[in-house]
Amino acid sequence: MPPLSGSLPSTALKSKRMGYIVMEFIEGVVCSTADARLVAPAVQFLITIKGPTAQPGPIATPSSSTANQRLWSTNRGRSVPEVEKYGLRLCLSDMNQTNFVKDRENKIVALDFGATCFLPVSFFELALHNHDPFTHVLRQLIVHPTSTQSDASSVASGCLVPYDTNNLGLPREMRAKTAARARRRLTTALRDPRFRLEANPAS
């Protein structure tokens, strides 16, 4: 397999509140479970990339405080052990096999970094616990830093799934704003002439 390489995107556009990065078009075929052994070294390389700053989250996204500062401000201690030991790593949160393409030279290209952030290693461990066959094979092949927080992250993630939202921990005023935006989107959709509600026929 050819040497692995990678770099952060350098071309970006911004329109109003949205930011965009320019991606190269990759000609190739979507990887299958049989390609997991080719994909594993690429993922192994990506998780070695450390965050350019101590701020968790997407690249260059402003944050009010670092992970350690958040814990300090709530009097829970001054540090997160795994952050102290490993720093923040590039976390591929979406291991869907359609996000990996094999080009004509048999090189693996990772696509769709929309859910990728610099996070503590426990988040990557959580991403590897999807139950699809592709991720299952990757989990056997990738060596990654171990975390004492992965079980807690898994429980927290499972608690959010029934509600289909990650807003449960937001302050009340922020939850209200989020709910208001959702209502506006629903109202807009209901006004769309393409949207129709038909009464169930009487039995």
From TrEMBL:
<protein>
    <submittedName>
        <fullName>Uncharacterized protein</fullName>
    </submittedName>
</protein>
